[in-house]
Amino acid sequence: MDNIYSKNDYDWIKELLEYPQTLETRLDFFEDTSQIDVPDDPLDKVIFQGRAKEAIRKIAQNKGHMLMVGRPGTGKSMLADMFHLVLDKSLGDFLRPTKAIVAYPGTDNNHIRFAYEEPDIVDNLLAKMHKAIEKIQNSALKFSLSEQIRSVSRVKKWLLWITGISVAAGFLFPPAFIATGLTGIGAIFMFMQENNHKVQEKIQQQADASGKNRVKHLQDMVPEVLYDPRKDKGLMSRVSEPDARKMKGGFKHDPYQSGNLQTPAHKRAYLGAHAKSPIIYIDELKTLVKSGYMSDLLEIMQNKEFILEGGLNSGSGAADRSENSLKADNIIIACCNHDTLSYIQKEGDGAFLSRIEDRGEIVQLESAVPEDENSIKQLAQYIKQEIINLGKELKETWTGVIEKEGYEGVKKRSEYIFGKPLPEGYRLHEREFSKKAVMEIIKELRCRSSDKKISSILRPVNGIIKTAEFEAILDNSKLVRAEHVRLALEKHLSLEGAIHKEILEHKKDLKKYISSMTDSIGYVVGLAVITSGTSGQVYGQPLPIHCQITVGGSDSVVSPGKTGEIAKAAAKNVRASIKKAFNKIQSPYTGYEMHVEYIQVHGGVEGDSASVAMDIALISDYIGQPVNQKYGVTGSLTGDIILAVGGVTEKVRSIMDPDLGMEGACIPWQNKHDIEPLLINIDSEYIQNDEIPGIRIYRDSEKHNPFDIFFCKTKYNAYRIMMGLEQGEVEEKMAERSKKDFESMMNMKNTRDTNQT
Fold first, then answer.
1. Are the folds of 88-133+218-364 and 498-741 the same?
2. Cα–Cα dist 611/527, whole Å
3. CB 309 within 8 A of CB 250
4. Contact call for residues 320 and 309 (beta carbons, < 8 A)
5. Cα separation of 670 and 645, whole Å?
6. Which of the four CATH numbers 3.40.50.410, 3.40.50.300, 3.40.50.11440, 3.20.20.70 does domain 88-133+218-364 have?
7. FRET label pair with 654: which of 43, 170, 527, 594, CA 20 to 30 Å apart?
8. Would you report the helix, strand and coil content of the chain in percent, each value rounded to 5?
């Protein structure tokens, strides 16, 4: 076969080796992050999302709506916060409500009305009302038994006088003592009656001391202030689970519903985000769809007003409602992922999207951005911002200890936290990142993307930056170095990353076992990825594949297990490619059953990136040629051509662990730039196997432990690396096997025909 690589192809591979130096040159604007300035403009603190920031500035001009669509971690919440800050500084004084919202009784017990008024006027009005009610309350006649007490007291006194006179008369005229006894008993009775009246008066006066019961009907008529702009100065409300009660408001339950104690409806009313907040931020639009509030939101966005209603079908508050409307001229900022957007487009007829586009924009947040000078500067700025944030957190946590106990106290307490001695001169404060450390962060974000792009899913990187900071602090290093970032990457794993680490350990043992127990014919080490559902990060792993070809079968391809539709289609494409090879070499095709087994892949396989690996394993089994088990391979096969696939950087990185025993990989030519991040802070050189170009990466210092990566354009390039055979040798062996199979099938047919006759 003619050499399909041109001189430019070889030059392009050699240029890949210049990438680390090119990146370092792009970072010449600083030596460490202490030389990086953080912009004052809040929007410029959000990196990468240029189109979204431009849209925010436009929307801020006309008070429009915005829907941000993107994967978690791309900065949607941060952009919403920055939008809030921009509007607060620019138009905040005009957007912020200035009038209080007051509720007062309506035409009956279940209806209320609203009024918008200046807070000072409301205060004066309410003060006058409360003063008037207090005056009425104080002027009301108090309960009194004074007349009864006075009359009883007079009778008691007269009886006491008569008793005294009768005692004196009794010494002269003894029968007078009879009158003494009678009047004395009467005086005692009057005394008891007087005390009873006094006690009754006191009890009644205490029970009615405040006089509220007499003026309750007046107090129930006093308006209720539901919103005071002087107390609530925020422009934006965050609503994580939007429903009618949180967005519109409603009426509280009344526990006093009888005995003339019931609370009037206007005093049980409360307002939601629509009435109080100029900006409403809906963090995840999917929750709004699930709660069934979408139709209400669309109506309010259209009319800019709504009626407050009770939210339950029965019970207190069910029949309550307002007689006039509340204003709701809100700016809606919403976020969602692509699945939710598709659902809204299909199920909602695009009504919500049209409302957004009518007064704003739908913005796609990029999951990755091209690596250029601008994006690299923004990433360095982002790292600086995270360093500043960590410094603030440490200061808030440890300032009290430093003031009371000094840094010795901090060191002693930190040793207790970490359970080990810390170095002398230990100081708990943030460290700046060195240039090499920044390059490691860029390397990681390049590995999480492809096509010479940097991943813009930055939330998981925050933890890596902080972990690297603490590694440098514990090391008492002046700067965060590249090795600190590498340590942080090992420790800072998502749930899927931890699972991947366990799977990778299992794959090491599995691969070693297969290599020791087989002749490597029909076996190949493919490369796969799993994706984190939380961070979006991909993790590479080896994918052992075993294939067999059985002559005289049903001319089909069998791939058992949880194989996805794309993977099944890829297997059929491989069969078509092999049949095409038979036609090309003009060999008889007798019909073959091809069996593909993904070894111990219990979670299933999807995608076409294993199609080259399947082809190699099938050809290996067909011609009886062993496959090099120390090389992995990935790529999408179309005819003879190998096309690009995703996750190549992570796939290759997953088998570079020396403990796995792998020595290299074959990847598609179109994925050549995905190798660039693997060259950062490591030694490498150009290599070539016959006409196939490659790069050798040294996994240890002093150029030890090489790992070779070859860039394949066709499946025959992969055959050369994986089986050590040229195209002509493979075709010759295929023709030889095909001829034997054809002769064998013809002999079987002749024998069968003879037996039948």
1. no
2. 11
3. yes
4. yes
5. 9
6. 3.40.50.300
7. 594
8. 50, 20, 30
Instruction: Please provide the CATH number assigned to the domain covering 498-741.
Output: 3.30.230.10
CA 706 to chain centre: 39
Retrieve residue 669's tokens.
Answer: 């030519």
For the chain, the straight-line distance linking the first and the last C-alpha, in angstroms and rounded, comes to 49
Amino acid 439: pLDDT: 94
Give helix then strand counts, H and E, for the chain.
25, 28
E strands along 340-431, which residues?
A: 361-364, 368-370
In 475-523, which residue ranges form alpha helices assigned H by DSSP?
A: 482-491, 495-517
Highest mean pLDDT: which range of 120-134, 293-307, 546-560, 685-699: 685-699
- Locate 70 and state its tokens: 């993107």
Cα separation, 558 vs 270, whole angstroms:
64
Closest alpha carbon to 608 in 651, 649, 573? 573
Tokens representing residue 104 in the block: 């007062």
Nearest to 165 by CA among 155, 153, 179, 154: 179
Contact 178, 120 (CB under 8 A): no
Owner of token pair 């494409």: 573
Distance CA 534, CA 496 (A): 9
Q: Give 284's DSSP letter.
A: -
| Residue-range domain boundaries for the chain | 31-42+368-491, 88-133+218-364, 141-210, 498-741
- Residue 469: C-alpha distances to residues 386, 395, 474 (Å): 10, 15, 9
CA-CA distance, 441 to 438, in Å (whole number)? 5
Neighbours of 579 (CB within 10 A): 13
168-195 mean pLDDT: 77
pLDDT tens per residue across span 643-700: 998 889 989 988 888 888 889 999 999 999 999 999 998 899 999 998 999 999 998 8
Q: At what angle do helices 611-623 and 565-584 cross, to 10 degrees?
A: 40
Q: What are the contacts of 424-429 at 24+ separation with CB within 8 A?
A: 424/476, 425/476, 426/473, 426/476, 427/473, 427/476, 428/394, 428/398, 428/473, 429/391, 429/394, 429/473
Residue 170 near residue 182, CB atoms below 8 Å = no
Q: 239 by DSSP, 3-state: which?
A: strand
Other residues' Cβ atoms within 10 Å of the Cβ of residue 593: 16
Q: What is the full DSSP assignment across 62-89?
A: HT--EEEE--TTSSHHHHHHHHHHHHHH
Q: Among candidates 633, 596, 599, 627, which has minimal Cα distance to 613?
A: 633
Kindly report the three-state secondary structure assignment for every residue of 591-633.
CEEEEEEECCCCCCECCCCCHHHHHHHHHHHHHCCECCCCEEE
DSSP class of residue 522?
T
Q: Please determine, for residue 506, whether its predicted confidence score (pLDDT) is greater than 70.
A: no
Distance CA 718, CA 692 (A): 9
108 vs 698, more confident:
698
Residue 651 amino acid letter: K
Calpha distance 382→384 (Å, rounded): 5
Other CB atoms closer than 10 Å to residue 22's CB: what's the count? 11
Cβ atoms within 10 A of the Cβ of 9, count?
17
In single-letter form, the type of residue at position 296 comes to D
> Within 10 A of 300 (CB to CB), how many other CB atoms are there?
20
CB contact at 8 A, 436 and 481? yes
Rounded to an integer, what distance in angstroms lies between the CA atom of residue 317 and that of residue 327?
22
DSSP strand E in 139-293: where? 224-227, 236-239, 249-251, 269-271, 279-282
**Residue 224, SS3 per DSSP:** strand
Q: Which residues contact 549 (CB under 8 A, 6 or more apart)?
A: 592, 593, 594, 595, 618, 621, 622
Q: Are 726 and 682 in contact (CB under 8 A)?
A: no
CATH number of this structure's domain 31-42+368-491 = 1.10.8.60
